[in-house]
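Quiz preparation item.
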């Protein structure tokens, strides 16, 4: 068809359908019900016109020769093949000419290559909508949502396929996406780089050990294993701050990048990805302060100490973890629900925050009370554990000094990420995850929540379209 013929066909059909719609809309006075019918009718009319135009425009790009070239191979026409593509206007059947290499193997449809639809069922705009929605929603809810705005929503199976395709690609193309993000997502002008790491348990579709009391009733038998286990996923954040003005003005967080990995030994991939990003940021900008804030887990600090990306970084033990240990010590010294415990806790919490000598005062007090208790008692053991914890982390607990430098002292950002990035998506009622499936979702979710989605999606689309 010529351009004129395509336009004439599409416009003629649209005029006919629109005329019928307008005539029926004017037959009776408008009511809310008739208004809704009119909107639905107009939507259907526009969609029908879109399907017709889409089909004609795609067919006009078909290859009518006997051969096509793709990659380093030459393909010969074999047969016609019909395929349905899901578009914003609904499902459109496309008659494609299918080509195969003379030496056998997988063939191609030339029109798929030209439209970037090789191996695709949805047009790229719908594929992106499904992927982005799935970063926050289950396949069933994504389908329901898309069904409210599209003429025809993709099936749950098709949505899962998109998540697997895009999330799996993200796993293998990490470096390419990072390069694109570095070019297209500018850093805010903050002067302080803050890194945090934490973990959160997620429900896995793996066998686990049953916990709790065994069944005691006659005739009831339980296995030691369950079909569900809980494993620790890793979560990391990289934030840029403007340092505060001493203790009076709190540091201002300007942006945060999120990293999340399904359970793995030692959180190795999480550390690798995060430290690589930190290395690039430090290479690009000379930050006045580089800070690492974590809880007291020795394995985390060991990994930080051994990583050159964090050289000369200020290490800070999350203040709220430190305060939790302080609370345990107060209870062990004075007992539960005791006003003396409250006063002791309040005094040393304030000293840690305000007095650069507060840490030494705390250690002296802990050692004093430890000597007053029997060495075999649980109270003595608790105070001993807290004393060793403080001693091991004393360089990371200089909170008064850190606050005077305008640095954040809490890991609230990464703890919130454990809930908002991982927990809110993977820990919903009845959900159980494979490591691969969960990672696909987290790959989408972290890019979306980090403000990197446009760069991420454009990289995917460009690579997918030339595959």
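Solution:
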């Amino acid at each position: 068809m010529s351009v004129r013929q395509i336009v004439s066909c599409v416009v003629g059909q649209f005029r006919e359908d629109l005329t019928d719609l307008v005539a029926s809309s004017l037959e009776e006075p408008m009511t809310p019900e008739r208004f809704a019918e009119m909107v639905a009718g107009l939507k259907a009319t526009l969609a029908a016109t879109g399907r017709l135009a889409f089909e004609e425009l795609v067919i006009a790009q078909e290859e009518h020769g006997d051969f096509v070239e793709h990659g380093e191979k030459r393909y010969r026409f074999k047969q016609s093949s019909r395929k349905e593509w899901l578009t914003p206007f609904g499902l459109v059947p496309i008659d494609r000419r299918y080509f195969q290499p003379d030496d056998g193997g997988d063939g191609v449809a030339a029109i798929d290559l030209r439209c970037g639809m090789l191996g695709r069922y949805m047009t790229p705009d719908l594929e992106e909508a499904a992927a982005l929605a799935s970063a926050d929603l289950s396949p069933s809810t994504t389908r329901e949502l898309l069904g409210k705005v599209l003429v025809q929503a993709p099936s749950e199976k098709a949505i899962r396929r998109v998540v697997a395709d895009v999330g799996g690609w993200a796993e293998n193309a990490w470096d390419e996406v990072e390069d694109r993000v570095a070019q297209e997502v500018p850093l805010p002008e903050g002067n302080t780089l803050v890194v945090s790491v934490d973990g959160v348990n997620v429900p896995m579709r793996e066998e686990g050990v049953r916990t709790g009391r065994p069944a005691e009733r006659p005739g009831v038998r339980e296995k030691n294993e369950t079909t569900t286990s809980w494993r620790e996923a890793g979560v990391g954040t990289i934030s840029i701050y403007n340092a505060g003005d001493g203790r009076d003005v709190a540091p201002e967080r300007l942006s945060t990048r999120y990293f999340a990995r399904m359970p793995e030994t030692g959180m190795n991939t999480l550390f690798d990805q995060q430290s690589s990003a930190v290395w690039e940021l430090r290479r690009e900008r000379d930050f006045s302060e580089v800070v690492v804030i974590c809880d007291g887990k020795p394995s985390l600090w060991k990994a930080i100490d051994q990583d050159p990306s964090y050289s000369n970084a200020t290490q800070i033990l999350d203040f709220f973890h430190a305060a939790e240990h302080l609370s345990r010590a107060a209870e062990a010294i004075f007992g539960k629900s005791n006003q003396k415990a409250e006063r002791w806790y309040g005094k040393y919490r304030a000293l840690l925050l305000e007095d650069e000598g507060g840490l030494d005062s705390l250690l002296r007090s802990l050692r004093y009370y430890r000597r007053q208790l029997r060495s075999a008692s649980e109270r003595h053991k608790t105070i001993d554990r807290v004393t060793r914890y403080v001693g091991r982390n004393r360089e990371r607990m200089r909170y008064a000094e850190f606050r005077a430098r305008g640095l954040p002292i809490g890991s609230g950002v990464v703890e919130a990420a454990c809930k908002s990035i991982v927990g809110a998506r993977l820990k919903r009622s009845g959900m159980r995850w494979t490591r691969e499936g969960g990672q696909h979702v987290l790959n989408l979710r972290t890019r979306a929540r980090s403000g990197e989605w446009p760069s991420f999606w454009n990289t995917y689309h460009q690579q997918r379209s030339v595959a």
